[in-house]
Specification:
2 copies of one chain form a homodimer. By secondary structure, chain A is α/β, with parallel strands linked by helices. Chain A contains 10 helices and 18 strands. Chain A has helices at 41-47, 65-68, 71-80, 95-106, 170-177, 192-195, 238-243, 249-258, 277-284, 306-313; strands spanning 3-9, 23-28, 31-37, 55-59, 87-91, 114-118, 125-128, 132-138, 146-152, 158-159, 182-183, 189-190, 196-197, 204-208, 226-230, 263-267, 290-292, 298-300. In chain A, the strands form 4 sheets. In chain A, strands 6-5-4-3-2-1-18 form a 7-stranded mixed sheet. In chain A, strand 7 (125-128) and strand 8 form a beta hairpin. The longest helix of chain A is centred in the first third of the chain and has 12 residues, at 95-106. Chains A and B meet through helix 1, helix 3 and helix 4 of A and helix 1, helix 3 and helix 4 of B.
Chain lengths: 314, 314
Amino acid sequence: LIFEVKILGCNSASFAFGRHHTSQVVNSNQNLFLVDCGEGTQLRMIKQQIRFNRIHHIFISHLHGDHYLGLMGLIFTFHLQGRTDDLYIYGPPGLDEIISLQLRHSESVLHYRIHFQVIEHDDQLLFENEDLQIISLAMNHRIACYGFVFREKQRRFKLKRELLPETLGREELLLLKEGQNVTDSAGRVWRNEELASPPPVPRTYIYAADTRVLDGIREVAEGCNLLYHEATFTSEMQSRAEATFHSTAAEAAQFAARHHVERLILGHFSSRYQDVSPVLAEAIQYFPHTILAAEGQTYEVPARVASKQHASII
Amino acid sequence: LIFEVKILGCNSASFAFGRHHTSQVVNSNQNLFLVDCGEGTQLRMIKQQIRFNRIHHIFISHLHGDHYLGLMGLIFTFHLQGRTDDLYIYGPPGLDEIISLQLRHSESVLHYRIHFQVIEHDDQLLFENEDLQIISLAMNHRIACYGFVFREKQRRFKLKRELLPETLGREELLLLKEGQNVTDSAGRVWRNEELASPPPVPRTYIYAADTRVLDGIREVAEGCNLLYHEATFTSEMQSRAEATFHSTAAEAAQFAARHHVERLILGHFSSRYQDVSPVLAEAIQYFPHTILAAEGQTYEVPARVASKQHASII
């Protein structure tokens, strides 16, 4: 199953050195979720050949301009392109008012419907389909800000259809799908692994921006497979990070290590860094499995090594 | 005196073929005026090396997204760059509310002051300094929309200081500056051209977008030196132009010819035209002094040929 994130923009508040305002696209089994939408996101989408009509869900973390100012333009472009599909927008209180006000003044009657869901608290289930859940994660920023947990659902065991004996009934097949051994009508016991393959281990991707590094985190984030965490500054700017409610590379990496994250992507770089390699150099001292976000790159949410996780699945 | 316009974006509602949303910078004697501010304008400014701290006045024609959605980002960027200079924004009713609402939700207290002037009617004097006046010009669009008349002021005659006889008093010098002949204290008559040079003919630049072609226009626009007029479509799309309150190239060119414009720039091209040369081909049938706006290009506001205008100056 596809589960990956493509970075459209990974700079902080200003455009600098070819880096753009925050936006990314999470692809879960060919369903795309746009996460944050800084100014110019629609241009980044065109450049990355992301078809606009594939976007049905947009998640906005908070109302600082570099995270949402591309949203109105995208809404108008959808309209101009003749979109009729519903659009679901998830954001903090106020975003709906900002959108409605601008629609009213443009006297636009959209050809499609916008459903707006206010993110009101931590651990709010925002979206769910057969593949995953998307849940809010409260950040610690200057204004209300939410990260997002993309959590794959546990799938069932997959039957080895060509090996199934006719002596098994419907009930036994369901038990096999749940990972259990079964006894057929002839009284023979079948071990699960003879007739079924275990499902992939569900993976979790967490988007965490903008925030002071969190003191703790809910269980859901513990050991997540991929964490995108802001690292606006290096430790030289520790006091600035604290004053502006951002994190340093060291803090993000220590957080990842403390919570047994599989892999860490750092982003939201300050415009003071033309060369962002010091951000990486600082982070890997604390957490070696760190990479720097690069615009246009796609990062797969990695599976855990099976041996490490096997005990927890079955 | 410098009097020119630099095109930052000249496409209509969508980004297409490397063309961007509407924005341009008028330079009058080193004072810069930003006219419209589509999404991504700050990136275009960086590309064209327009220093942000030189922008003190921003004029927004109307509240369709492709003309103003870059404004909030620019306001935030000014703030992040530590701007302290006042910023003057001129726009239709509603724009101030859109700005205030977004400042409120971002909980930003800007380091500088914004003065907002509502454009309420045609022929409203919006700005004036020693070089020029900027006046609203009502367009005919789907929603309230204003063009802008940039009108140089009549300057005085320039004295040929090295030739001035001491027999002339202060009063005579003032008369010379007004273009009159004078008599000195010895009773000698001096013709004006012996002691003074005529000032340059004041020029007028008009920005007209978005609009159905106007039936008539106020006197101020008659014979203007440079007219930027939208030409969203060619005549093949006549009915679409009418339905959407836009103009065709033929209509814009006929308008320019009818009102004795010196030079015409066409812009606001529909994204249906990858190659915009048909827009030009159509226009020059009616008005040969037409050029197509090109992003990054600067167009001087041309002076009239002296012989044509001399009668009207003196």
